[in-house]
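ugh finaly. both done.
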Amino acid sequence: IWGRPEVLGVENLDNSAIVLRMLVKTRPLTQWQVSRIFRKKIKEAFDLAGIQIPFPQQVVTLKADPELLKYIGGREKQND
């Protein structure tokens, strides 16, 4: 990295993410390696600070016809 990274600001706000725009100067053809290391260092700093990265969650509720519930694994359930 040449010089200090420049934080341009918040690029996007989403349900599970805040995207920041930054400029980081690197030697030619090293930008991908530097970006991976940079993101790793950011994640480590977040972990030390107790900052969790949110992830999308979805709750799915299935409702079935009671007549269909008589059949489990392709055979009719025996009523005791």
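ok and the 2nd:
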Amino acid sequence: VVGLELDRRPFFFKEAEFVVSCSYGPGRYDPKYEERGLDYPAAWVRWTEQRNIQSVLDLMASKKLDVSPLITHRFDIGEANGAYELIETGREPYVGMVLTYPGMTADRIERSVRLGSGGERNGTIGLGVLGAGNFARMVMFPAIANCDAFTLESLCTAKGVSAAHSGKKLGFARATTDEDEVFADDRIGAVFSITQHNEHAGHVVKAIDSGKAIFVEKPLCLTEEELEKIELGVEGAGDACPLVMVGFNRRFSPAARMVKEFFEGSSSPMTFSMRFNAGEISSEHWTQDEEIGGGRIIGEACHGIDLATYVVDSPVVRVFAESVGGETGGEITDDQCFITMRHANGSVSNIAYLAGGDKSYPKERIEVMGGGRLAVIGDFRVTELVRGGKRKRVKGKQDKGHVAEVEAFGKALRDGGEWPISWSDLRTVSLAAICAVKSLREGGPIDVV
């Protein structure tokens, strides 16, 4: 990262070469390699970042690479402050410092750790949570903490440090990196899956097979094949199927419920329009990857499809989508599209998922009309209801329904009764989102069956 001013003459006269080496080796800074695990063929790149590390570890293990001369100090973990003091003061020369853990051996690697004597609260349902990313910490954990139906049993993340840190802070009894342990734990009756989208379908199938209720953040799945596997599990379990719920929170918002009630009693077909001012994100972001995130239609525009289904009270039967194009359209255009849907009761809806705007403008706007009535939701802060020339305007703090959806999940588990969102709606909304992407690729309307 610094400027290089090299004299050409010694390189020229000695026919020498100057080679710049990427730290760790090929693969460094390549998200497809480092984050998605897509390896380079050995015949193309012999020494990748991972193979370099493997070779070094092998050489160290066989004593062919001796690193002991680099170690100048050893400290027990209880005396670690002394190591940092040495670095800060520089009172004596040092190169490498090793922190040792007396009494511990590497014979067995533990994937779980107990954080306390038991889970927080005395809820009736033991809870296991998969994932502790930004959305989980910022939105879902506060919603879960607001619900007294659960006892916090186990928090599972891919990295043990984040599981232990967040688990201890939230009051979970255990932290683990083994998701199978969560599904096998008899103390756990319900699971929250708040992970990357490509893991959702597998978690739902595991939950059904293990007899545990599951709340999975949207989307339910990424492909029709995954949806079929889930459907087989639901149908195979029959009446004994544990509760399955997807985080379609908008339908649980006060604004959506108010609009739903406002249109009750009207037999006329309705029109529903929702505009997302989604904001642009990098094409390299994991949500844009169809195999990991499913793309932004399946990953987020599904909220609009579900809300339309809820408000017009009818499933989607046909979907057609168009996105921007042309030479300047960009690498990804799916997140600048219009999705038009027909519902079984004759209603029509339109989801405008648009990433080309300015993020400073409100993100979501909904307009619903039918039977001489009109309703508008402005970013889930302001709701307007108009009928017979009379207008009612309700304004409040933004509430997209996250707390209410968790409460509905807990209540259904504790009290029994119908699922907060019917399996029919979960299936149809998920399939409609998949079909919207299919429509973009094929260029025509797709029947949702």
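summary for the 2nd one i guess: The chain has a mean pLDDT of 93.
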